[in-house]
Amino acid sequence: MAGLDDLRKRLYKKEENFGERMVSPDLNRPTQGRRIAWESETNSAQAPKKNSKIFWGSVTGLVFLITALLFVYFSGFSSIFKLQSLDVFLTGEKEIKSGGLTVWEVKVTNNNTVPVQDVVIIFNYPPDATPGSSKAKVVTGLSSNEKVFRERRPIGVLAPNETISESFDAFVFGKAGMTAEVSAVVEYRPEGASSVFAKDGSFSFHVGRSPISVSFDMPEEIRIGQNVEFKVSYISQASQSIDDLFLKLTLPTDFELGSASPLPLTKNYPVEPGPRDRIWKLEKLEPAKGGSIALSGVISGSELEPKNFNAVIGVLDKRSGEFLTYDESSEVVILRPLFLEVSMLVNGAKEHISSPGGSVIVRINWRNNLPTTVNDAILEARLEGSAIDLKTVRADNGSYRQSSGSIIWNAASYEPFRNMEPDDNGSVEFTFKTASELSLSSTDKRPVIKITVILKNGLDVAGFEGVDVTGTRVVEIPVSSKLQVSSRGLYSNSSIPNTGPLPPKVGVETTYSVVWSLTNMTNDLEKVKVGAALPPYITFKNVISPPNADVKYDKNTGEVTWNVGRISAGTGFVKPAVQITFQIGLIPSLDQVGFTPTLVNEAITTGKDTFTKADLSSKDQKISTSLTGDPSVGFNQRNVTQ
Q: What domains are defined for the chain?
C-alpha cells in the first residue's frame, strides 16, 4: 500500500519525472501480440460450447443406456439370444388316401448354448380330419367358419443342441386331388427371460385317391322345362368294408325333383341339410362294390344358363358333428331351349298368387326351334287342383275336356299348328276363376293350382325320328287364404250389459257393445290385427270381453286396436270364429237430434299368409245407432231425441 501512495504523490507532483517514460510508446503493437491476444479471447468464448457438447453427449449416452436396459428387460435377452435359433420341422406323407390314418412328425431342435424352458407344441390338424388323440379340441378356423382340431402338447425343458420328435395322427378326409396343410407353433422361454417366444412350421400334402368314388351319369344336353333323368353312382376302392356312409346331393336352383330311387331321408339327418340338399343313408359297402341313385325332375332357367349338380359321399364325425368327405363330384350342365318351346305368363307375370274368387288369365307362348317343319302339332294344358272353379274355364281356339281336366289346341281349331315352320311362334290364352269357398283345416294340404303345358308333334319330324321333341312347362299358382272381419253394434243380447235410454237422448249417456269377428279360410295367418277409429264424441269405456284380449285404445287418435296374432286355417268355417266385444258410450248433443250418429268407423283387418307370404286385408262398414246387427232394436229407437 505504501508503494501505491508514493506513486500517487509523484503522479500529482509538479515537474516530477518518470524515467521509464523517456521513450515514446509505439502505438502499433506487434502483429504476433495481437494474434495472441485474439486467440486468448476466442478460447475463452468457446469454452462454454465445449462444455455444452460434453453435456449433451452425456445425456445421449444415458438415454441409449436406459433404452438398452429397457429393451433387454422387455425382450428377455433377445439382443444376445437369436429368435431363429430354434428349428421346427414337420414331416409326413406327401400323398395320402382319403379316410386313411395319416401320421406327421414334429421335430424341434434347440441350437442355442442355453436351455429353453416351458416348451409347448401347438399342432393344427387339417380341416375334415379326425385326430387319434382325445386331447385335440375343436376350434373355429381363422380363415373360415369351418371347424378344425388343435392339440396343445407340453414338452418342458429343451437342453442346448437337443432335438425332440413328437408324432400326431388323424384320419384325413377329402376328395382326390385336394391339397391340405398341417402346421405347428412351438412356444418357449429362454432361460433367465420372462418373455415367451414362438417359432412355427408347416407341411403340405395332397389326397391321392379316395376309398370311395362318386360320379354323375348325366345326359349330354338338358333342355329347359324338359324332364331330365340322371344317376349318381358310387363304388368302393377300399380293401375293407365301409359302414355309416351318407351321400349328400345339392341340386341347382330351379330344379324340381320329381322322383328318386331310393328315397332320400326325411328325418334323422347326419347334418342339417340346406334348402337344395337331399341326403341318403347308404348300406354297408363291401370292397369293389357300388351302387347308384336314380333321379328325375324338371329344370327351369334361361338359355345357355349353367346349372351345377354336386354330390358328396362320406361319413359323420361324431366328435365334431361335421360331415367328412371321402369324395366329391360336380357336374355343370348348360341349358338348351326345347325343340318345341313353350312358356307361360299368369296374369302377365312368370309367378302369380291367386286368391279365392280371383280371376286367372294364362298366356301360353310357343316356338318351333327345330330346323324343319312340324306338322299337325298339338298343345295340351292340364289343370289340376281343387281351387279351380271348373265352370269358369274358357279357352280361345281351344276346347276344354272336363273328363281329363285338359284344354286342347290342334290343327283343326288353331291353324298355325297345321304346319309350323322353323322359328314360327305364337300364343294362345285361357282363363278361369279360383273357387270362392275353400274351407280347410290347418292339417289339410295348402291349395295350389298346377298347370302343365305340353306341345308335341302330331307326325314324325323329318330328321328327328325317334327323338323326343316335346316341349313341357309346369307352373304352380298358390292360393292365398281369405281373411274377413265382421263389425256389429249391439245394445241387447251382448256379453257386456248396456245402459241408457233407447232411442238415445240429448245429454244422457247410452252405452253400446261393438263386436268384431274374424274368419280365415285356407292357410294359417300371422300378425293379424283389427283397427277402427271412434268419433270424438264417443267414449271408450275400457270394458272388454274376453278380458285377456289384447285391445288398446289411443286417446289422441281415438283408435281402437285389437292385436290378434296368429289365426289357424278354417277359423270360422270348420272351427268357431275369433271375436271380441268392447263397450263404448254416447252422450248425444243437440245438433244430433233426428240423426243416427256413427258409433265406430269402418273396421280394417290385416294379416300375413304363412303359406303364400301374401299380405291380406279386409274391412267392414261403420256402425251407427241404427244397430242393424241387433234385431231387438226397433226402428223408432235409432234416432237421437231431445
A: 86-209 (2.60.40.10), 221-336 (2.60.40.10), 340-478 (2.60.40.10), 483-637 (2.60.40.740)
